[in-house]
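Lecture notes, continued. The same structure-token format from the folding unit now serves as the input rather than the output. Read the line below as a description of shape only.
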């Protein structure tokens, strides 16, 4: 026989007794207090979730706005590649100015990386895209490729600007 069964058999008469006066009222008060805490907790969680949603929406909107500006300008250009190369050269010039205060070894590394990124865009990447693809798909692939290289340069410029 388990301890629980033994306890029940020994105290069987106590289970038949009525609880003392006011017991149900005290129990109801405890339940009501817990309900108030739960309501306050759920309100707090709702407010925190709303704030987080607001912040995340703002961050996503800022990122989309930042990326959208350079995409729209170059995607609608007649020569998309030239447009992106011009933007990359402008960022490379900015990086050149920002890196003037670096020691010669670090500056050389940064400028080599910048030159490698720009050189990769000058390559014949567009000739590697299958000719069977529709024009729209080809433009999307090229736009993505150029945009990623431009964003890499902008990332370098941002890091240099933040270090100064």
């Amino acid at each position: 026989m388990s301890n629980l069964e033994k306890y029940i058999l020994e105290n069987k008469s106590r289970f038949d007794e009525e609880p003392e006066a006011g017991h149900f009222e005290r129990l109801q008060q405890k339940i009501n207090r817990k309900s108030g805490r739960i309501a306050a907790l759920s309100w707090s969680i709702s407010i925190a979730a709303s704030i987080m949603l607001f912040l995340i929406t703002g961050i996503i909107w800022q990122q989309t706005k930042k990326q959208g500006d350079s995409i729209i300008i170059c995607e609608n250009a007649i020569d998309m590649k030239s447009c992106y190369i011009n933007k990359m050269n402008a960022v490379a010039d900015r990086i050149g100015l920002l890196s003037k205060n670096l020691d010669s070894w670090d500056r050389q590394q940064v400028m080599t990386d910048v030159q490698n990124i720009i050189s990769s865009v000058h390559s014949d990447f567009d000739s590697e895209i299958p000719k069977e693809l529709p024009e729209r798909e080809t433009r999307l692939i090229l736009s993505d490729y150029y945009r990623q290289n431009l964003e890499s340069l902008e990332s370098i410029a941002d890091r240099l600007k933040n270090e100064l």
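Point for the exam: The mean pLDDT is 82.
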